[in-house]
Amino acid sequence: MAGNALQLLGGAGISAEHDKESRLDRLAQSEKLRLLYQQSFPAIFASLFTAVLVCVVLWPVQDKYILLVWFSALLLSSLVRFGLFVRYWKIKPEGEALLAWEKPYFLTLLASSLIWGLGVVIILPRDSELQQVVIYLFLLGMSGGAISVYSAHRTMLLATIGSILLPIATWFLFKGTVISTALSLGTLLFLVTTIRAGQVLSATMDRSFRLGYELEDARVAAEQRALKYSLTGLNNRRAFYRHGQAMLEEAGRASRQLAMIISDVDYFKN
Asked: Cα 51 to the chain's mean position, in Å?
């Protein structure tokens, strides 16, 4: 029976440790989401400003209707993202409740990224290599900015950069000229570098957030131990004065009276 009891205790310990690790993972993920919502809002306006520049560059050589349709689609996706941020600031979710905001954030970000990546291939002029290179540089700059904005979340970072660059890289590759092939290979090299950098940055942030929560858990546990009597688990003298002072202050503010019952137990340890 003693062996069975030890096995049960060991299993309970493993389960508790697994639950703790799972909780820390969720909390670290929620902190990364909080960071994304805090720092990525200006990216909406940066995307629209860049789109205006792209339209200016392509206006003389591309069908105006195609440009306007593409810009309108990007503007609509930006408005949806703007609404998501407004809802987030209004509700202000905390802790694990933030995880419910991950999917809408990812979907709206992916939609905008695909409008950029696939849309640029559609609006790109087929007979003007200069404009092609200029637009490619715009996309490359946006991808570089995405590293600083979305590096907290590796999946979103890779999805964003891949959606923006892979369509034009594929188009350049099938075009078959020396310059387009070089640009395509350069894009693939950039993606490989980004994957590695994103992995390192995301892992570092994840460890940092987890460490913060582990330290907070350790602080709370130490504080609880300082307020408990180890033999019984009951509140000790320090807890009595801390909670009692808080109750007195609350009663004073509410003009209420307090009553206290004192009991003396003989041979308590026995």
From this structure: 25
49 by Cβ neighbours in 10 Å (0-12 / 13-18 / 19+) ranks as exposed
> d(Cα 153, Cα 97) in Å, to the nearest integer?
17
| 3-state SS, residue 235 | strand
What are the C-alpha distances in Å from 124 to residues 59, 165, 166, 225, 228? 11, 14, 15, 66, 70
Q: How many CB atoms lie within 10 A of CB 62?
A: 20
Q: Helix, strand or coil for residue 270?
A: coil
Helix axes 102-123, 129-150, angle to 10 degrees: 170
Q: How many CB atoms lie within 10 A of CB 57?
A: 17
This model's pTM is above 0.85? no
Say which residue the tokens 């940055």 belong to: 201
The residue type of 23 is: R
Q: What is the mean pLDDT, run by run of 10 residues, along the chain of 270 residues?
A: 58 63 75 84 91 89 89 94 93 83 91 91 83 85 81 82 88 82 83 72 70 72 78 83 87 84 79
Residues 6+ apart with CB under 8 A from 81: 44, 108, 109, 112
pLDDT of residue 184: 84
**Structural contact between residues 100 and 150, judged by C-beta atoms closer than 8 angstroms:** no
Q: What is the number of alpha carbons within 13 Å of residue 97 lying toward its C-beta?
A: 6
d(CA 99, CA 80): 19
